[in-house]
UniProtKB/TrEMBL annotation, chain A:
It holds the Pfam family ABC_tran. Keywords: ATP-binding, Nucleotide-binding, Transport. This is ABC-2 type transport system ATP-binding protein. GO terms for molecular function: ATP binding; ATP hydrolysis activity. Residues 2-227 form the ABC transporter domain. It comes from the Bacteria. PROSITE patterns: ABC_TRANSPORTER_1, ABC_TRANSPORTER_2. Residues 308-323 have a biased composition (Low complexity). Belongs to the ABC transporter superfamily.
From TrEMBL, chain B:
This is ABC-2 type transport system permease protein. Keywords: Membrane, Transmembrane, Transmembrane helix. The chain crosses the membrane at residues 18-36, 56-75, 96-118, 138-159, 166-186, 220-244. It comes from Actinopolyspora biskrensis.
Amino acid sequence: MIEAVGLTKRYGSTVAVNDLSFTVKPGKVTGFLGPNGAGKSTTMRMMLGLDRPTAGEVLFDGKRYTDLRNPLRTVGALVDAKWVHPNRSAYAHLKWMARSNGIPTKRVDEVLDTVGLTEVARRKAGGFSLGMSQRLGIATALLGDPDILMFDEPVNGLDPEGINWIRRFMQRLAAEGRTVLVSSHLLSEMAQTAEELVVVGRGRLITQCTTEEFVDSTSSSSVKVRAPQAERLREVLTAQGMAVAPPDSREPDSLLVSDSTTERIGELAAGHGFVLHELSAQRGSLEDAFMRITGQDVEYRTGSPESALPGDAGDGALAAADK
Amino acid sequence: MTLISVERMKLFSTRSPWWCIVTALGLTIGFAAMFASQVQDTAPMSVGMTQRGAQFGLIVVMVMAALAVTTEYRFGTIRATFQAMPNRVAVMLAKTSVVAVLAFLIGELAAFGSWAAGWLLTSDQALVLDTAAEWRQVAGVGLVFAGAAVFALSVGALVRQTAGAVTLVMIWVLLAESLIQLLPTIGDDIYQWLPFAAAFRFMRGGGDSMMSQPVSEMPIGPWASLVYFLAITLVLLVVALVTVRKRDA
């Protein structure tokens, strides 16, 4: 269980994280979702006591990170897979971390085996590919067999097989009753991994809800129908007050119906004796939905061209000076 | 003890400390051997003169000490360290102890190695260690190396960049102090109270060498000079600890 309360980080006049509060419950994967620059990594560093919050605190099972004895045994975290000395072997890296928290050395071999790095364990970490570094970072997080796990963008740089492995791995950790927090800027990624979402934009909490709720609330749903007698079906559906998109010349036998369900259309078609070749629910693009909801919370937006035009005030001043 | 053994593991699981040890000993003892082999009867040998190359080892050890911190910042391992061990002051003290002990050992090896090289090459009876001042000039080198390592490590922790920290430390030890001495009127008075001037006074002063400053001309005695040097080093370390504790890792 992780509880963040009023977490705030200011750098001079810029506010990186603004009064952020959320809870992460055990037994499921919680996604920490937000566009780049939303303050996800800063938040994670503050959670681990690396950056000092301007205000607020984070509790892991009721305790602050810096008050934990042997913190790696309570909270395992992968914030940046590159936090390894390039001339140190993966084995040596894990060994000193294990020693620092009183973790037996044989655990090092176990986690190396879990992430599949046993064969390269004695090689310098500096020569690792991004995927291997990422696996080493995950091994580090698992080292203390902690109940709480945090991963910052864990699938970055992984190949599809690695991505799949991480997804299943995190779900397994959650199924074992652990608390798992995973950050990402990709909603589609989170939709496949996380059950619960903490959504942030520009350092502020946008919403905390289940992934399903978030997806439902943000994406418009429509139904795709493919039928040989598409034109006649269109008339029937329109007569029922449904909004049918104009015909698409590339797919003349398809209809896109919004504000309806597959059940209703299926029953109507059966009632009128239509043959259907396809009947499927369509989700709007998750990315579009995410953009819509966090649109005002993107840090680096492109400036509008009008603002670059000279104002009238300058002309007025010139005119005044002429008089 | 756990923290100290962790820092020891971290230091020796990369190759740079080994290179530093070899370089420091090689340069210092090598210089002493060259010096002894070229010495003429007109300039009699002394214990102090076998230690003229100590500055080589000193610089290498200081670079090693600065690197012990700056590489951690360079590669982000300092964050992994503080993540595993949130008590930053304890971590930094453990690191300081490991580096200081290593620097002390390198200093002793270099000093006695240099002395032995001089003895073997000249068989000069003047090199017999038979006065307290002569013992200080040889055995004291390790103490100065340890203090200098803490000095460099603190600078490394404050600056956090290898290039910056190494440049600062080298310029201070090799240039700044002796340049200040060149200032008219006040130069000499200030120089006497600079940290490495005090350290060198302890390391080289007294004895029967023509090139060393007699104890009677020192503002404070050689041992007081060492204490003064270590005190300045300690102040710098405290400033570094407070900064590391307050700053975002």
